[in-house]
């Protein structure tokens, strides 16, 4: 079992020291491929460079290695560390995410069924207090308590792509498609 509160307490200061915001800490893969996934972003761009990923990965690795040497490893056994940007169809994990991405399509899964449903898809209206509002394709408004949400993520749409500006497109026009000469 992984203590996510302990992991967040270890990882968040490392991200913050680099000026990054922690988006998600997750552990998946089971016994066959256990992976500690850390997603972070620069608050001003909502993105992460490859150098940011490498630097944060080193910081986290150094911190976890030191804890292991001290006999205080928060994770039992071997695992793989994966540090990345949340990506364009990002998970929504913090209350601010639901406000920041209002107007975009999202998929939300609840921890338990509510009114006979556990999964909701539609346009994110935002968050008011601790209630997330989503309007589905039938124009039905769903008010979901933030604490009841298990997972939520944006849906990749043309509107989302247009709203997400890359850090740099330098060199993109020089790329060749595979197989071209």
Question: TL;DR?
Answer:
The chain has four helices and eight strands; from the N terminus they run αββαβαβββββα. By secondary structure, the chain is α+β, with helices and mostly antiparallel strands.
Write a structural description.
One of its GO terms (cellular component) is cytosol. Residues 10-89 form the Ribosome maturation factor RimP N-terminal domain. This protein is an alpha+beta fold and 181 residues long. Helix content is 25%, strand content 32%. The protein is built from four helices and eight strands; from the N terminus they run H-E-E-H-E-H-E-E-E-E-E-H. A five-stranded antiparallel sheet has the order 7-6-5-4-8. A three-stranded mixed sheet has the order 1-2-3, with helices on one face. A hairpin with a 2-residue loop joins strand 5 (117-128) and strand 6 (131-135). Helix 1 (4-17) crosses helix 2 (50-69).
Rg, Cα atoms, Å: 19 Å
Structural class: alpha+beta
The unreliable regions are none
Q: How many helices in DSSP terms?
A: 4
Keywords:
single chain, 181 residues, alpha+beta, 5-stranded antiparallel β-sheet, 3-stranded mixed β-sheet, 32% strand, Ribosome_maturation_RimP, ribosome biogenesis, RimP_N_sf, Ribosome maturation factor RimP
How are the elements arranged and paired?
Elements: H1 4-17, E1 21-28, E2 35-41, H2 50-69, E3 80-84, H3 95-100, E4 105-114, E5 117-128, E6 131-135, E7 141-145, E8 149-154, H4 158-163
Helix pairs in contact: 1-2
Subcellular location: Cytoplasm
Function: Required for maturation of 30S ribosomal subunits.
Domain Ribosome maturation factor RimP N-terminal: 10-89
